[in-house]
Amino acid sequence: MTPVALTCGEPSGIGPELAVKARAALGRALPFFLIGDPRHVPGPIAPIADPAETLAVPADRLPVLPHTFAAPAEPGRPDPANARGVIDVIARAVDLAQAGVVSAICTAPISKKALKDGANFAYPGHTEYLAALAGVERVVMMLAAPQLRVVPVTIHIPLAEVPAALTPDLLEATLRITHAGLIRDFGIAAPRIAVSGLNPHAGEGGTMGTEETMIAEVMERLGREGLQLDGPLPADTMFHPAARARFDAALCMYHDQALIPIKTIAFDEGVNITLGLPFIRTSPDHGTAFDIAGSGTANPSSLIAALRMAAEMGAARVHD
After folding, report:
1. Beta bridge partners of 144
2. Residue 274 in contact with residue 306, Cβ under 8 Å?
3. What is the pLDDT of residues 271-296, one digit of tens each?
4. 3-class SS at 7?
5. Which residues are annotated as part of the binding site for a divalent metal cation?
6. pTM of the model
7. Domains of the chain
8. Binding site listing for substrate
9. CA angle, residues 256, 292, 81, in degrees to nearest 5
10. Distances 265 to 9, 113, 144, 172, 301 between C-alpha atoms, Å
């Protein structure tokens, strides 16, 4: 069984603590190892020299592929000297994934400010850096839980800028990447995708906005190619249980339209997935939590869910 690589993320955040807790919860049932500095891990570890050694590590120890950082890590106080190490660990995980020695990458949270302050990190976040490392021009963010998968077409921009950013090209690319990802990484042969409108009541026939005309045109064109798309739908009636049963993923036009329902339904189990990469990447849906780092109170549920989903997607992709 090929293991999952877990990057350490910001070592002064809750990532190292969560890695230890995830190992304690999962044991050897789900083989994963941490890439990071052993000094930063607050629990029993077993250094490994090769990912394949993960399978032989006792269940009560966290396998760690050592990556030396410039400085120790003080919980809650990121050290700029460690920024380069955080970045290099991500690149190392990508190298392992592209070499086929890990089934997937799961990334612990980073601090974008710490990376910018310490290493002049030029990317808005994890996702964009991973895309650059993979040589991929466009990727898609999916938030997933057992009850729901959602994809926002536009992500971290002001709401006032969404109508201009919501172009036919962006919508089409997002639909195609989502459709392909559901087939390749989730094993769904004929994905059903529900597509929201932008405006209340999906525009109410043009009386509350006209963006739905463009959305419908893109959907009709892709529908002629065989994609199973439903919409544009009013976003306020897309997420009750009976509606969710009719689709495999919901495509929403902006950030909150997608994230409010999944965080309401599965706040602690939501997983961030990057579709469109040549390898699998998942991440817990939370940040570094500097305010509680080192307290021992961090909840590992989202990281455990992210590791499980990474392993499941890795298995689906292998057997595609």
Report:
1. 149, 271
2. no
3. 999 999 999 999 998 899 999 999 99
4. strand
5. 156, 201, 255
6. 0.92
7. 1-139+268-320 (3.40.718.10), 147-265 (3.40.718.10)
8. 126-127, 263, 272, 281
9. 95
10. 26, 30, 11, 27, 14
Q: Which alpha helices (H) appear in the chain, and where do they start and end?
A: 15-26, 83-98, 112-119, 126-134, 162-165, 168-186, 211-223, 241-244, 255-265, 301-318
Rounded distance between C-alpha atoms, residue 175 and residue 165, angstroms: 15
The answer to whether the bond into 158 is cis (omega within 30° of 0) is no
Nearest to 18 by CA among 6, 30, 1: 6
- Alpha carbons 193 and 199: distance in angstroms, whole number: 19
User: With contact defined as beta carbons under 8 Å apart, do 46 and 62 qualify?
Assistant: yes
The backbone torsions φ and ψ at residue 290, rounded to the nearest 5 degrees and listed phi first, read -55, -30
CB 197 within 8 A of CB 235: yes
Q: How many CB atoms lie within 10 A of CB 84?
A: 16
Q: How many other CB atoms sit within 10 Å of the CB of residue 29? A: 9
Tokens 């906005």 belong to residue: 209
By the 8 A CB rule, do 130 and 272 touch? no
Both tokens of residue 254?
Answer: 């902006």
241: exposed, middle or buried (Cβ count in 10 Å: 0-12, 13-18, 19+): exposed
Indicate the annotated binding residues. Answer: 126-127, 156, 201, 255, 263, 272, 281
pLDDT digits (tens, 9 = 90+) for 52-93: 999 999 999 999 999 999 999 999 999 999 999 999 999 999
